[in-house]
Write a structure and sequence with these properties.
homotetramer, 338 residues, Dihydrodipicolinate Reductase, domain 2, 2 domains, seven-stranded parallel β-sheet, 30% helix, 21% strand, globular, arginine biosynthesis (chains A, B, C, D), oxidoreductase (chains A, B, C, D)
Chain lengths: 338, 338, 338, 338
């Protein structure tokens, strides 16, 4: 099987390459990067020393030459390239937001472009295996979830599905800076981000429609979330601290979550709140569930690696499912600690 | 004026010494530390080079020898020492929680000891000048607020006072590790805390009764907060992201806050969410107020330095008020950036 | 093959467990830790989710029950336990300094204890495969090198072996804090180590006799190094910047190094100075060689992970050699970046 | 006195503004920044709340309107602007390298431009008060030293002046990333610099001619240094670890340094190696001197804040001297710790 990675020089592309380098039965035969076109992978990233380190970045991906595609592109180019892969009859996991939301208005409002292929939006499967595993198996186009939606939806799904939430949902999330991509920016220049932490876009974050859209699809009812993301000064790591009112007791809510996820290989229940570092470099989502009886509010806390379960290793999980592999194949290695 | 600092070798003690070293008209004549008794300040902390660097740590503080006392002790020893200072007729700012809560049961339940001087609890003034400035002026005993309560109460006070909050209050807070004190612990050993972030004690944090007690005192009604603190891997810095339902419009809620705090020298309103680094080493509390009309929830975000406005510089602010100085004296210096 | 790890709850023990969890044909049947005796691995380290996570820490290791031993103990207990494993006819990799130096006086002077088994010192092989691969193959006792000696000796070996160094050798090294172990200490308490960097023990560092002893053994002549270690505020990572006078030209010195290490699977030559992060979590040693013609001094810079090639993955490399496996088995996985 | 700061939006400019905001008897009446022209200081840097926060960035500085000038510009524009200030008869501290070296060839070779005003080079005084205090007093143009040269020259001056160094000088230096300026760059993008450390430009660093030129001027003989700078992942801080052969005993070399610097208000001798954090935000240079009798090499270690004594607070020290103030005026405040 020949694999292509478009936009391979960003953080999600590098992470895909790292994980795929342990697969014996595949060949990565194309990597693309506008910025590094013509350069070898190992000359751009000297730490690369696996099987693919002699690969040369191409300007673009040729659809004829590969069998499976990972797209790590900006949203708009992804709209087009996914369409072209789809028409070729091949399979693609798209790590952008281009096909995540079944509502074209969201693209106009939150992403600033008009989505040209609304019919393909409805053929694309949202690549969160814990919710849509069966659809992913047969999908040609998998829209890999965003990191904030992954952490938030996994923390809400059992409660939303069972309809046990009363009133509003408040999500406060923390994210490492790699989630903002590899492009240097003033606010992420090391001396400024060093030792700093702050909320950003507290009122209208792009990830809200993705979350609400998926939660509505699995519950059949409108769900509204109040979502405030915060930057924390680490490279990788994401926490979502979720609060909602419920009539379930503490034991009932804990049991609900454990039951729903009892066969999930990448969800771990902890008896203490989760740490970003415990999932760093992994595909795990650690979950803590509790209820504050004083206020009647349940507290669900999830932790993922924004580049792992929040992006690239989840893309590999989808790849494993789409290609008939064991879902956990190559994804259960331990984390580097400390 | 002769000043004593008990427990001067902890982080709040060092910060007091730093700020007080710029006062021309005082003498610090006693510093105590069990651990460093007999050693000079500058031998323990080689970076100290101000007027007080030749001071020698004593085992204990002698009440006769000084005129004003700052206590940076654990809660229980503080209960006793505050009492003794009070009986001598002198003034004290206590940075522990020993006299913060007007409810002895809270001490039994949350702090694990029985408070022996309930009558003195009611004479102690809660040292948040933005709420209790007039009481502080004439107080003998000022209970300096905790860092989480400072960030949370300043973010809630205008709304609570006006009674515009409907339903529960959700507070998610981030804190730098210096807030946990100077004692080495496994979870704060550098290799483990490096690059990590996590919530802790999400269900029952000691600071909740302090917050609820003060908010009840200023509003006359029971207030319940859902409070989840998170560790972030920095030395200093604290964010409180507060969410509550209100019928006020965005403009009304913003106006309410600006009006309430319009004369406050240490409260700055920002049009973007605040950064921990913008207040680091300062006595400022930066505030951002907004409303999410989609969900009907107001969002108030505050940022302080947990050792500054959350502890030592707020203690100095109280000291300035208690000794008839300009309240802002020596507290408006710029921050070291980046 | 049944494997025991003594002192498994320290950083080198955890790293061994992580790497060994990918071996299909071994069983770890004993892990010991005084501190956590009786507790399960995954209850102490919640991020552990591999095959060994249900293992229970024992107070001590039983020599009869296992076939191969990794010792991550303090120096003195290791002196004894290595002796006992040796007498049982089994094999051991000792990660302490207990058997690294062929000179009992060094133990008295630098480590503060008298070495009881000088004859066993001479049977132990210094576990730096790039220098002593053939001896390691047949060794029963392998003394795994320290992190500073690994980075320094690999950076000096080709030049020392060929005798091209004139005069003194100056080594300035940087180390992440995990190299100091898992025990919490004041200077490594997060708020204090955060944002700080400093040299330590500049005059007499324990690792000097280890370096000089090995370099003398391979060159036959006395070698003196001036070694200054520095703490940098990261968890993992080590740089050794080495300077010495030589008559070789730049091209000659580069060629000398490349030739010597041309078949080494874990040594990578870079054309730019190495980064600690490029080798983090790996067994690689990245090397940069150059000469400053203005001063006549060669500059050799090496980078390793102090817990990887500087400790645990090097121990696994030795294990692979001692047990007849491919030397690189399981040690060529890519690094997690960024 | 009216003061202008050209290039005030960089890190050295911000630091100058912070320190100068405590001066009662000056007015900053011009700040320039190409990037932020037309914007208010406090709108660009929301943490600014001192006297100057309403200042508006200008495109350029007008020489007629101010009495004293600080230039925080790139080297080439500084060449011109210094010249123009000089011709107006006013005083200037130039923080660029434009007038540091008395050798025009160095500019062609290391800085890539031809210096147009060689005669003015010889009128400019090198602004290291510990060496050139008397010249600075009467200078019109002071070339403020670079951070690496400050740390290195202060660590070498007593030994160089007395001629006690035999053979080559090896300097290994560590620098926080703020030393590279405020412009975002790929290698200083937070996720990449986070947790990383590495040497850079080990063979030919721009600061070498500056160091050698000054050392030659004070000693009369050619001095060659082998200088290797390293990036450490902090915002501020610089260490220079200096090694050289000498016949002086340990006591003699220590005494030589203490004697030379005995009246220096900003030089502190430590009995343990210095920490970057002990001088952060200050104008101090901490020094540690020792000798390794085994190798015959002296070890001198200095620590400064690269933006403090390595740039802006040293510029203020020069300003104090040039304007007849107490040299230490406003520069002895304590550091924010931890």
């Amino acid at each position: 099987m020949k694999i292509a990675i478009a936009g391979a020089s960003g953080y999600t592309g590098i992470e895909l390459l790292r994980i795929l380098s342990s697969y014996e039965d595949i060949e990565i035969n194309q990597i693309s990067s506008r910025r590094y076109s013509g350069k070898r992978l190992k000359d751009v990233f000297p730490f690369f020393s696996g099987r693919f380190s002699d690969l040369v970045f191409q300007e673009d991906i040729d659809i004829q030459s590969s069998d499976f595609f990972f797209l790590c592109l900006p949203h708009e180019p992804s709209v087009e390239l996914v369409k072209r892969v789809y028409e070729s009859g091949k399979k693609v996991v798209d790590l952008s937001a281009a096909y995540r939301i079944k509502d074209t208005k969201a693209y106009t409002e939150f992403y600033g472009f008009e989505h040209k292929y609304p019919e393909l939006l409805f053929k694309a499967v949202y690549g969160l295996p814990e919710l849509f595993r069966d659809d992913i198996k047969n999908a040609s186009v998998v829209a890999n979830p965003g990191c904030y939606p992954t952490a938030s939806i996994l923390g809400l799904y059992p409660a939303v599905k069972e309809g046990v939430i009363k009133g509003e949902i408040v999500i406060n999330a923390l994210s490492g800076i790699s989630g903002a991509g590899r492009e240097p920016k003033q606010q992420f220049h090391y001396p400024e981000a060093f030792g700093d932490s702050y909320p950003y876009k507290p009122l209208m974050h792009r990830h809200i429609p993705e979350m609400e859209n998926v939660l509505k699809n699995v519950s059949g009812s409108d769900i509204k979330v109040r979502f405030t993301p915060h930057i924390i000064p680490v490279s990788r790591g994401m926490i979502a601290t979720i609060t909602f009112r419920t009539d379930l007791s503490k034991d009932q809510i804990v049991e609900l979550y454990r039951l729903e996820y009892r066969y999930e290989p990448f969800i771990r229940f902890l008896t203490e709140p989760p740490h970003t570092k415990y999932v760093s470099g992994s595909n795990f989502c650690d979950i803590f569930v509790d209820k504050d009886e004083r206020t009647g509010l349940a507290v669900v806390i999830t932790a993922i690696d924004n580049l792992g379960k929040g992006a690239s290793s989840q893309a590999i999980q989808n790849f494993n499912i789409m290609t008939g592999r064991e879902e956990t194949y190559n994804l259960l290695t331990g984390i580097v600690y400390p």
